[in-house]
Amino acid sequence: MSAAPRLPSDYSTVTDPERALKYAIQHVAGDRAEIIEGVITPVSTTWAHESAAEVVRRQLTARLEALGLVSGAGSLDLPGSENRFIPDLAVVPADLAAKTEGQYGAPIHLLVDRRHRACTVFSEPTRLGYAVEDGPHAFGVPVRLPAPFELDLDTSRL
Q1: 30: which residues sit within 8 A by CB, 6+ positions away?
Q2: Distance (Å, whole) CA 60 – CA 90
Q3: Cα angle at 136 between 131 and 138, to 5 degrees?
Q4: Is 116 in a helix, a strand, or coil?
Q5: In terms of Cα–Cα distance, which of 69, 51, 46 is closest to 139?
Q6: Which of 1, 6, 72, 119 qualifies as a FRET site for 138, CA 20 to 30 Å off?
Q7: What is the pTM of this model?
Q8: pLDDT tens sequence across 92-143
């Protein structure tokens, strides 16, 4: 059994800002906070957000089990950056979901923009973002999710 890591009493000596910020978010800011560009931001969901996530989740459910994936709103850590997000809905491999915090290189990112009533699918991640952008598609227009899902998402109820 190894000893717990020793935490510095003076954080001015921490040389890895990514590690310091992620420690702060996990142990100080609480479960419903994320880090975007180095800023700790509390996250609160609304029923409208939850409803939209549920509409998407229900359409993915049949594919999740077949692919060994699970869905949820757990935190996601972008390794090599200060960022840690809590998405409205994430789909990750079941083995990754069993860990405390998932690290991601999400092959597909679905942006549901309720303000502009449109969806955009981003795929083929690179170091600097996504190589493929499909959309925006107005709510009501089916949105094709690429592999591994390969299904048309009904956006009429978002």
Answers
A1: 42
A2: 11
A3: 155
A4: coil
A5: 51
A6: 72
A7: 0.66
A8: 777 776 765 565 666 788 888 888 999 999 888 777 778 899 999 999 999 9
The secondary structure of 43-107 as a DSSP string is ----HHHHHHHHHHHHHHHHHHHHHTEEEE---EE-TTSS-EE--S-EEEEHHHHTSSSEE---S
Tokens representing residue 56 in the block: 């998407």
**Which conformational region is residue 39 in: left (phi greater than 0), alpha (psi within -120 to 50 degrees), or beta?**
beta
Q: Where are the domains of the chain?
A: 15-104, 107-158
- Interacting residues of 132 by C-beta distance below 8 A, sequence separation 6+: 122, 123, 124
Helix (H, G, I), strand (E, B) or coil at 22: helix
